[in-house]
Amino acid sequence: MQVMVKLSTRQAIGESVPSQNALPEAIRARAQSLKLNLQRLHPNVNDRELASYYVAETSDPSIAQAAVQSLLREPGIDAAYVKPADEMP
After folding, report:
1. Class in CATH terms, 2-82
2. Fewer CB within 10 Å: C terminus or N terminus of the chain?
3. Which regions of the chain does DSSP assign to beta strands (E)?
4. Backbone angles phi, psi at 42, to 5 degrees
5. What is the pTM of this model?
């Protein structure tokens, strides 16, 4: 399952589009303490808004829910949620 994170565009990006590893250190440390490796959802896009979306994979639903609750308390995060499982058409 995927944990989706939307960073505050202003705090996360500043004046330019961030590099692949431009995740603010406090947010990166929080994610690592939760055993999550946040990666840019759109790594090769030079768009400020799209660059603020991150994703992490986990197979444990309890870790995913705990991560969402913890990340939402972090300044600079506008949204965090567990992506619903894909469904068959």
Report:
1. alpha beta
2. C
3. 2-7, 39-40, 53-57, 77-82
4. -125, 75
5. 0.83
